[in-house]
Design goal:
The protein is mainly alpha-helical and about 60 residues long. It contains four helices and no strands.
């Protein structure tokens, strides 16, 4: 599952509209829409703000090739 799909699922389970989550996270609606649709072109700080507003922990890891 990509991060945007997971974010949307958590938002819906919390019964939050996109507008309300954006307000809580101080993120613009176009940014949230872009992330939920699976874009990989976003600021990681915005993603953290969204998960913080949802009171969820996000774990980011990288793998060296």
């Amino acid at each position: 599952m990509h991060i945007g799909k997971e974010l949307k699922e958590i938002r819906l389970n919390a019964k939050l509209s996109q507008d309300k989550l954006c307000e809580l996270a101080n993120v613009t609606k176009p940014t949230l829409i872009k992330i939920e649709k699976g874009s990989n072109n976003y600021n990681i700080d915005k993603l953290i703000q969204l998960f913080d507003a949802l009171e969820r922990v996000i774990k980011i890891s990288t793998k060296a090739k």
